[in-house]
């Protein structure tokens, strides 16, 4: 099958390679001349045979919006756009409506797999009409992991459902990573434990907490047993925040996901104002000692 692919970053580049290995014809566009196959979106549209399918794999937000607006100007009736980035699900309906004015179909696709997707396959969560999804199943089947389709692919519902599912997926991922990190810290604090890495390695088989994330932490600890080369500063790319916001809207309690999001905020503070206030309060009401910054700094 022929596919246009916009965005050849870490994931997009590997997706192009996996699809080409699966004998699909992939024509990629990226602003970086060293990786692009065509000079611009117009060139991409001209290189594809109608009805055309274009997969957008760029950062969420304004870049995605600009790309979809650009595609609406160069594609036409019967063509199809897939947004495979981490867009917020609420942006999908406006994008679908914009493209529908030109007779262009739209699918939103949540994609999980990171840099390992090239060899392991990508978990896919898609939203769109049955007809549109059926048109591009050969692409989805090549990108997903081997095995039964339902174990790596879901047509979650209409437009918006794919990105909603991916948003919740990433919220769960936040909580899992925090739990694994807390477990590592507790193991490392106990002198009885000779090697936290060995414990995490042992958890890779036969235990109820085994997972790919757990195996990746075992790998990271083997490469750097004290994690001495890594700072604890952790960014969030938006999905965790959106998950908590949607949980509030739907009145669904998600304390684990919320706590993991706030833990990321905490990681960015060199000296917590909250804990400084707590120390000051203990000193005020109980005369408890505080550690003061010296005049020399």
UniProtKB/TrEMBL annotation:
Keywords in alphabetical order: Gluconate utilization, Oxidoreductase
GO biological process terms, semicolon-separated: D-gluconate metabolic process; pentose-phosphate shunt
Span of domain 6-phosphogluconate dehydrogenase C-terminal: 162-296
Xref: PROSITE patterns: 6PGD
UniProt xrefs under Pfam families: 6PGD, NAD_binding_2
Top-level taxon of origin: Bacteria
Molecular function GO terms recorded: NADP binding; phosphogluconate dehydrogenase (decarboxylating) activity
NCBIfam families: gnd_rel, PRK09599.1
UniProt family annotation: Belongs to the 6-phosphogluconate dehydrogenase family.
Protein name: Decarboxylating 6-phosphogluconate dehydrogenase
The organism of origin for this protein: Mycolicibacterium hodleri
Lineage summary: Bacteria, Bacillati, Actinomycetota, Actinomycetes, Mycobacteriales
Gene: gnd
